[in-house]
């Protein structure tokens, strides 16, 4: 039998005139000259090194300007103060003004919702007066408001002030904080956008969110000790003045509040040192030099800078260019309301739940449990941001909201320290997955010169969340976790879990529609229905807000006259 060429031992696959292909050569593909053998470059090695991909964002962010570190330190302090006071705000109105859970939660909802509403109107202040002035003015407003709010109970206990007058004074103090915070947070995020570049932006937003949460954890370490010491000190003063002591009143919180007043003042000092004209000018010059090194011309840089300045717009233009006119963007942010109710429960429900449903050891360290979530966010957010930097935003939003909502059902098992920790830990992982991505999405969507405005608008559903949750959280506490009587907290958390899980379901079902290019104008029936539905919800909530304000400002005071 004749042999084919490939079976001939003398066959040479690269001999001249030989057209056949050697199967072995196809598999091995050996290089035939030195030019085909290339050593991977350093950049290529880094790109294929998973550990390097995680570490590099931290290395890049460490090189950000001094001014941005000043903003982060200020944000750290403010996170501690904000969450520290918020933990006790409902209890403050329970103890010193005698409000029931529903009434106290309405006031807290007015405060937290008012902050977000203020961002809608004051979020653009940093674009108009500058980041530095916006941050300083905001902290001054908050300092004055916190002094008033903390001082009111002293007049009530030691003086002869009218209950109604002191109640309005406490609300006025909260109002000043609302005004201040309405400028503060958008200005801080505007600073991140202003002083970071493409390499450091993602980590910049993540770090700002993380340091706020680190600040939110600090009350869990600091507050119990100050509270215990000041309680004994304050009770001694009451007895010396011949005033009856109520063992159920948390007198120690006033000492904690004064600590936060001092901390607010220190935050102003930090801004004066780190965020001044000199450091801002230096940061902008460094950013300019980086852009020049990347190949941008002086003219191009100046053009971009002019574009980033806010432009005067007529009222008609304002409404025509309003972010909520984008139905997809509006649906996207409104779909997050159900899962965001879990944030509101951190101060509307969790403090009272821990204080009433657990034993004395847990109760004595209530702040540690209530504020355990922030330290986890501080640790997890930068790590998750680095690991998932290249992941699809929509995918992270769906997975993150699902992971955050699911552990709510752990608490439906019943009051238990282990399920409480499991809930906080898993919920925090989910939060770290989606929350910074949402904030970055909102900031990057903003046209030049409108970052503060867009950050404020993105907070609008968060405002609705605070108001909506405040409407029912107090009622649930009174019926399922009262101060005295039988408790059925399992049912309460089961209902809350059903509400929260709605967000990932909505995002999953509409993921294809939401992924369409932003430039595509969607005239579908679905878009129209969603726009009408969102409009109805907004109008209904605003109407109820008026009723809520009447209750807070008129009904409650009138009941005391």
Automatic annotation (TrEMBL):
Q: Please list where the region (Disordered) is annotated.
A: 1-20
Q: Where is the composition biased (Basic and acidic residues)?
A: 1-11
In Pfam terms, one family for this protein is MFS_1
Q: Where is the Major facilitator superfamily (MFS) profile domain?
A: 67-515
TM segment ranges: 73-94, 106-122, 134-154, 166-184, 205-222, 257-275, 329-348, 368-389, 460-480, 492-514, 526-556
Q: Which GO terms describe its cellular component?
A: plasma membrane
> What keywords are annotated for this sequence in UniProt?
Cell membrane, Membrane, Transmembrane, Transmembrane helix, Transport
A molecular function GO annotation: transmembrane transporter activity
Q: Where in the cell is it found?
A: Cell membrane
Show the Gene3D superfamilies listed in the entry: MFS general substrate transporter like domains (1.20.1250.20)
Q: Which domain of life is it from?
A: Bacteria
> Topology relative to the membrane, per the entry?
Multi-pass membrane protein
InterPro entries per the record? MFS, MFS_dom, MFS_trans_sf, MFS_Transporters
Q: Which PROSITE patterns match?
A: MFS
Main localization is membrane
Show the coiled coil region(s): none
Q: What protein is this chain from?
A: Major facilitator superfamily (MFS) profile domain-containing protein
What organism is listed for this UniProt entry?
A: Thermotomaculum hydrothermale
């Amino acid at each position: 039998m004749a042999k084919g060429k490939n079976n001939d031992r003398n066959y040479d696959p690269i001999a001249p005139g030989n057209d056949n292909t050697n199967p072995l050569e196809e598999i091995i593909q050996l290089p035939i000259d030195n030019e085909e053998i290339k050593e991977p470059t350093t950049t290529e090695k880094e790109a294929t090194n998973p550990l390097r991909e995680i570490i590099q964002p931290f290395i890049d962010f460490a090189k950000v300007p001094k001014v941005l570190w000043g903003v982060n330190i200020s944000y750290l302090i403010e996170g501690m103060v904000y969450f520290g006071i918020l933990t006790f705000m409902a209890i403050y109105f329970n103890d010193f003004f005698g409000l029931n859970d529903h009434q106290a939660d309405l006031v807290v909802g007015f405060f937290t919702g008012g902050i977000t509403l203020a961002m809608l109107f004051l979020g653009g202040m940093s674009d108009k007066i500058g980041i530095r002035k916006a941050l300083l003015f905001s902290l001054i407003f908050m300092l004055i408001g916190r002094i008033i709010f903390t001082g009111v109970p002293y007049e009530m206990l030691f003086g002869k002030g009218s209950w109604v007058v002191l109640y309005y004074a406490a609300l006025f103090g909260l109002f000043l904080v609302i005004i201040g915070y309405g400028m503060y947070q958008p200005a801080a995020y505007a600073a991140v956008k202003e002083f970071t570049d493409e390499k450091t932006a993602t980590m910049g937003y993540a770090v700002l969110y993380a340091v706020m949460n680190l600040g939110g954890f600090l009350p869990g370490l600091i507050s119990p000790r100050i509270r215990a010491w000041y309680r004994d000190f304050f009770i001694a003063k009451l007895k010396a003045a011949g005033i009856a002591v109520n063992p159920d009143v948390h007198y120690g919180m006033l000492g904690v509040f004064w600590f936060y007043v001092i901390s607010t003042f220190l935050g102003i000092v930090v801004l004066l040192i780190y965020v001044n004209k000199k450091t801002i000018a230096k940061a902008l010059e460094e950013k300019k030099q980086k852009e020049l090194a990347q190949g941008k011309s002086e003219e191009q840089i100046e053009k971009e800078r002019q574009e980033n300045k806010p432009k005067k717009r007529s009222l008609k233009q304002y409404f025509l260019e309003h972010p909520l006119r984008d139905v997809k963007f509006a649906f996207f942010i409104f779909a997050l309301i159900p899962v965001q109710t879990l944030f509101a429960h951190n101060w509307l429900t969790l403090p009272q739940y821990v204080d009433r449903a657990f034993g004395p050891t847990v109760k004595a360290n209530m702040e540690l449990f209530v504020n355990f979530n922030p330290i986890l966010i501080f640790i997890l957010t930068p790590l998750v941001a680095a690991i998932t930097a290249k992941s699809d935003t929509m995918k992270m939003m769906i997975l993150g909201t699902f992971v955050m909502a699911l552990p709510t059902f752990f608490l439906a098992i019943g009051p238990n320290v282990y399920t409480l920790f499991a809930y906080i830990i898993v919920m925090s992982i989910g939060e770290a997955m989606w929350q910074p991505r949402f904030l970055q999405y909102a900031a990057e969507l903003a046209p030049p010169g409108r970052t503060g405005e867009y950050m404020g608008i993105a907070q609008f559903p968060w405002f609705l969340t605070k108001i909506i949750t405040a409407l029912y959280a107090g009622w649930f506490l009174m019926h399922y976790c009262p101060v005295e009587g039988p408790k059925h907290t399992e049912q309460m958390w089961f209902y809350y879990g059903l509400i929260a899980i709605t967000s990932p379901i909505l995002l999953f079902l509409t993921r294809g529609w939401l992924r369409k290019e932003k430039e595509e104008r969607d005239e579908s029936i679905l878009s129209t229905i969603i726009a009408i539905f969102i409009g109805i919800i907004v109008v209904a909530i605003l109407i109820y807000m008026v009723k809520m304000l009447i209750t807070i400002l008129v009904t409650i005071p009138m009941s005391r006259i």
